[in-house]
């Protein structure tokens, strides 16, 4: 058991560190370090533009999508090298946000199921940040039950015609391509009638509408499809095999371990270390200390759980669904921390502006945003089901619609 | 980076698990639970023969000279089996105190006897209510003579010797405390067994009346040595707690698969599934924090104080959580003496207090994190 780099790892770290020192956009360093909890705020620049420039530079230096094969724009790096890169990239890693869905989910799916031509055409551009990808899975009536989706794709000659609606699509408004799962056969049970495609988001008939979220921001979108034509060459996997293809996507999401997961603990620790209560510093208050300690050990537990997963990965073991605990633990923790920080602020806690008493409303923002952490990418309840079923081996839920043809499943709207 | 135990260490863990499955079944634990024996003497002998008691004791003192990582994997299995033997008192507390502060003669006298299973040791620190703190040590030592009483002392009634924390000054500083080594079979010692939450590990009150004792470590260094001993023990106990938590989770899972109600396995209800999933989350976080503690312990890293506190808190919470909800999954049967659930519930809650309460360690963690941040 050790944390030391092997000589090869140390050499890799050194090379990465030197390259970053010479190439990183240092003018944004301060703003990026101040952007906490996955929210990037650059005063004078568009985050996507700055992100694209950094991604392009990394690509040219051979540092983009490190774990991808070289022929598709990656570096063929080992899992440990990828982690070392993330550690060295530090605050600049925050700029990768617009590319994470592409690198972590869409790209690997194209790699596993796409034709050689498609891989060579799309993956290097994705790695270079020239083309951004989004993932079109969820629908208004297919969230946790994503296999119940309604968007139809009908074969017309050599192409497919798509009609329907997707929702909660992060980054659709700045994406160039999308990974789309659609129903191609409503006469068979729901998991069996799905097919995976990718499409140009600028195709005629695609309409992206931003969703105003509960926290007042607009990061997600609704995407409407009206007679959108997708060539059959942009199908991934066989017709009717979409569900299996989607599992590749979701499994790759779990492979992106060591990912930066905000817990709110460093922010809370700092806040409590500086906050004066009536009897002294908050961090000297026994009740505050007890809560802080419980959060701190959850946060360190997550960190070392990911280290264990990385170690397993480096030995060639496949990371399992046990990595689901990351989001489950951190989502709830963010919400609890935000609530408690505001409790400590007392009356001023209600303010959401740039007031000094609330440290510029950072916990208020956390409070308003945290519900999405517990829903997006698998709700807390779905994650618990996954742990219960796939890790602990408990029986699956009783699925009354499992063997019923899709068009015979009772729904509210039909 | 390799954040895992080695293949040899994993093999040792398997070996310990197999040995304990054979020699320390719940039936065997119940002999002590029911008060028919103060501890499992046969098992203790077996642990000595397997080399487990002296795994982290250097060869020159009769041990296997392996190391703390090896002791961690054995600790996990001891916790899993809720072994009714004075392992933590003797191996984590007494032996570690001797290793840190013992003179050559003291180590020669006691460590080989620990490794061979001939001597049971313990730490006599607490005096009634309260957590580890110099101000809570009232027992006095003057000219090597102890006066005062300690309670509760884990395994005090079966111990051959004790490391005793005593007051040798009154300045109000840590330097007021010194440690002493006491042969409990000699004069001036009165031992009384106490009933406690977890009868598979006894507790006692030990009264010292003009009891002669030899110093362990330098005078006035007692608190600093104790802090180190408690940190090491915190990591080792965390592994026992992780083992216990895992077993409680398994028991709950197995019962949920076996028990039928409303025409289906109760493990198919989300209320039960989610409860078990949450237990898994606690147990996983505790295991990961404990691995970090093991690394810090085995390398004597500067991070040990913080790592030990984190492991202690996380493992305490996980074992309590899993043991509690294991009973809930079992329903009424979980509340019977006949089912083993309560043995884990008792052990979890007794262990939560043994080295200082959860609140105490939370307090320690925050202090240590602040120290690190300030540095």
From TrEMBL, chain A:
InterPro entries: Acyl-CoA_Oxase/DH_mid-dom (IPR006091), Acyl-CoA_Oxase/DH_mid-dom_sf (IPR046373), AcylCo_DH-like_C (IPR036250), AcylCo_DH/oxidase_C (IPR009075), AcylCoA_DH/ox_N (IPR013786), AcylCoA_DH/ox_N_sf (IPR037069), AcylCoA_DH/oxidase_NM_dom_sf (IPR009100), Mycobact_Acyl-CoA_DH (IPR052161). It comes from the Bacteria. Residues 240-392 form the Acyl-CoA dehydrogenase/oxidase C-terminal domain. Keywords: FAD, Flavoprotein, Oxidoreductase. Its cofactor is FAD. Residues 134-228 form the Acyl-CoA oxidase/dehydrogenase middle domain. Residues 6-130 form the Acyl-CoA dehydrogenase/oxidase N-terminal domain. Belongs to the acyl-CoA dehydrogenase family. This is Acyl-CoA dehydrogenase. It comes from Bradyrhizobium campsiandrae.
From TrEMBL, chain B:
Residues 220-357 form the Acyl-CoA dehydrogenase/oxidase C-terminal domain. Transmembrane segments: none annotated. It holds the Pfam family Acyl-CoA_dh_M. Residues 144-211 form the Acyl-CoA oxidase/dehydrogenase middle domain. The keyword Flavoprotein applies. InterPro entries: Acyl-CoA_Oxase/DH_mid-dom (IPR006091), Acyl-CoA_Oxase/DH_mid-dom_sf (IPR046373), AcylCo_DH-like_C (IPR036250), AcylCo_DH/oxidase_C (IPR009075), AcylCoA_DH/ox_N (IPR013786), AcylCoA_DH/ox_N_sf (IPR037069), AcylCoA_DH/oxidase_NM_dom_sf (IPR009100). Its cofactor is FAD. The keyword Flavoprotein applies. Keywords: FAD, Flavoprotein, Oxidoreductase. Residues 6-118 form the Acyl-CoA dehydrogenase/oxidase N-terminal domain. Belongs to the acyl-CoA dehydrogenase family. This is Acyl-CoA/acyl-ACP dehydrogenase.
